[in-house]
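Key idea: predict the complex, not the pieces.
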Amino acid sequence: MSDPVVSNTWQSPEMTKRIARRHAAERRFRLLGLSAIVLSLLFLALLLFIMLRNGISGLDWSFLTGSDSTDPDSAGVWGAAMGSILTMLVTLVLSFPMGVFAAIYLEEFAPKSRWIDWVEVSINNLAAVPSIIFGLLGLAVFINTAHLPRSSPLVGGLTLALMTMPVIVISGRNAIKAVPPSIRQAAMGVGASEVQTVFHHVLPLALPGILTGTIIGMARALGETAPLLMIGMRAFVASPPSGVTDPASVLPMQIFLWSDEIDKGFVQNTSAAIIVLLVFLLAMNGLAIYLRNKFEVRW
Amino acid sequence: MIATIVLLAILALGLVGWFTARARARMLYAGRGSMHSMPVYHAWHVVLWVVVPALLVWAIWASVSPGLVDQAVLADPAAAPLGFDEMQRAAILSEARSIASDPSFMGFDPLANRLAEPMHAAQTRFGLIGAAIAAIAALAGGGYAFTRVRGAFPARTRVERAVMLLLLSASLLAILTTFGIIASLVFEAGLFFKNVSPVAFLTGLHWAPANAVGNDLDANFGAVPLFWGTIYIGAIIAMAVAIPLGLMSAIYLTQYADPRARKTLKPVLEILAGIPTVVYGYFAALTVAPFIRDFAALLGESNPSTESALAAGLVMGVMIIPFVSSMADDAIAAVPRAMADGSLAMGATKSETIKKVLLPAALPGIVAGVMLAISRAIGETMIVVMAAGATARLTLDPFASMTTVTYQIVQLLTGDQEFNSPKTLSAFALGLVLFAVTLVLNIVALRVVKRFREAYE
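Result:
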């Protein structure tokens, strides 16, 4: 065994040492990856734990049904929740049809032209434009030019609709793209027109995917604060708004306003409002996942 | 009030048109057995002819009638004492308008109170005229369309043409939004740059809009400290957290975790991206910032501030982790399987394959993902508003309070000052810079991703 060539084989002490070192590096790397995930999830757990600890005792019936007040004990979240619901309603009514129509046009009918390229580039960019820029747009166009009522769910909903529409267009296009061409050919084959093919056959099949994308976009809009800050939805609103033109606040804005209060009671209120908002968002995302799993067809 | 009634009436007329046209078309259909279009298309054709012209007429009338109302009110004897000063006239008229629409509204000017009555009368009169014209338009359109309900009439083609127009205009809305953003930012920023030179704005080192009065505007609108704060928090501190954690979690999830663990871990990680930024901001201000202040005191920093660049940057980095992770995931998945297999077949361990083959091959995609992440981080608002502070300063100290572009936009626009002061207009100039930078980052990143995918296809 003293042959010099043999000392280079796998059994030689240097080689086993080397292999052990490489395997140790492998384990270290694997551990590093695992700890990155664990660290991120720990942060999430810490955040949720602190919000629950601070807020859970503040969650009672009078908190859920009351409106904003200067007294932390009688302040509640319903006024802001109502504002959120009205704002989301305006956003949904505007962005869903417009987003779906745009997605259908771009995916099914658009001719290859420079104009359409511009539309695509601009949709992809709008999806990544900072939300505060949409707030500046809303301030300049809806409030200073069109003179719509300041801090109303109408203006908030319009602004958020412009922000949500690109998200719906992108998810809608993917859902429409996933419908196989054979469906279209079969419809055409029995004499349906192009528009009939799309509206009677392609759209119903793509709808679960579109709805999933819409819910995700709406969840994002529900948690948005910065653009609404720009259009002045930070009014102190002591009673729930009764229409889309009344001054209103929304849930994230209520969280922001309460977080500025120095009174100790508002710390509890802020965390409790955060719990309410997170429950809303969780429910929406859960619905989106459920829809996707239940109705998604793998072709 | 009158507008709602007109709208409902138009829709009701449309509904009536739908049913009568369908019934008529069905009768024809039953008689002949063959038509160009199904009855329902004839019905929609009639609806279009009822609703569209009526709405157009009403919209035009709604934009014209306020002027006519004002003229009628000015011609009223009660308006005789009104002076000829344009500004004063407009103010009193708008006050009278508010009283007319809401009697509980208290006017300051007695003249406005007296004018409210004729204003209300004129509004009603012109509203009724408009409603009548709209009704005529609806009936005329409907009548015309109803005469076309004939066997050979191609109602379906006409309706489908209208649908295509609707689809096209929906997709043009995206361009309109982009155009609206650019136009409003450029316009307002243009007003700002009339007073402050762009060079001073982009290169000045002193930011104090509160002191900016009179002639020394240029000296107080230097935005470099804001740019530095934005880059330091969003592109340096946040990325120092998000890149290693996001990249390593993507590697672990795609290369090591077994499929079942991946299926649960990935959505849980995505929750981090779904939490509203205002919640992160509150968490940063409530928990992270005091912790970092104590840590700074421990390191011997004298009198550290509660608001620090580090607190905002750290939390922002955590928020971006899932984004970086999913971009890295896509980039790694796009590398052809054969490259990794080749490396493994040569005897390399998995981690060696990842470090020496997969990551270099996926690098363009990862870099593009990081660029998108940076564009997100610098546009992030609520975390910095709640945790970063208001002082504009140029420093490398992560424990110092620092301000960002987005923070200043919020600060400048949420006060009660008049809209056209340089102070509020400067927010739009900052917005323009932010928009331009994120736009460039996005376009370049999307192009890199596209080219990178093509390279391996």
